[in-house]
Amino acid sequence: MEQADISKVRASVHQQCGNRVKIQLDRGRNKVDIQEGVIQEAYPSVFTVLVDDDTEQNPPQLLSFSYTDIITKDIRMKLC
After folding, report:
1. CB within 8 A of 25, min separation 6: which ones?
2. Per-residue pLDDT tens listing for the chain (80 residues)
């Protein structure tokens, strides 16, 4: 993994701040969790996504991910 790859991912996520995204989380052992949220902030090492499930009775959650999660494909993001 090169520093240039992380810089590209960081710049891409920073551009999308405030946009709605669909996140596919790989939880291991063939478990996949799909959630929708809004990218809140992009920090130097991590970025945060606010997930608000309208269909469920869960309160909004603020999830944080590192940029290496995207590079290693632990999570996949698509714009909604």
Report:
1. 32, 33, 34, 35, 74, 75
2. 577 789 999 999 999 999 999 999 998 888 999 999 999 999 999 999 999 876 667 788 999 999 999 999 999 999 98
